[in-house]
Amino acid sequence: MDIPTPEPVTGAPRLTYDPAWLAITRAFHPYFSSSVEQIPLPDPGVMRRKVAKELEKINAEGFLVPDLTSGSMFDDPPLVRTTAPVDVAAIQHFVATAPPQGTGGDHRVWYTNSQTRQFCDMLGIEDKVNPSGNEGKKDKVHSKGNRTGR
Description:
The protein has 150 residues and is an alpha+beta fold. Helix content is 28%, strand content 8%. The protein is built from 4 helices and 4 strands; from the N terminus they run ααββαβαβ. The longest helix has 18 residues, at 44-61.
């Protein structure tokens, strides 16, 4: 018996966003609660229709992504729409935004999560994890690696 073997993979793996998962994220986003009380979800049939509508929108319009042809992805490039697969690394730049545990961080200080901001910007949804209004408050906010400047 002859069993074909796959070709060896060279280079780093390519991680891309799954459009169906992103549609689910968009559809459920209005129900994201940062309070103790969860916003009630509609029945499953309604949510399935909302997810399908978001997937149609994603397939038609795509996402806002950095235009990497304009320069380095760290130079705050302009955003463009694409319907092509989106690499995670093109959107989310993983950087430390708070000091490591045990190095003098302050639990009273807000450390903005730039990866969440970048993800929300791509989807065109409100960033409910990093509420706006925290930026610019001296001694209350620290933001590092925030590509969008929001």
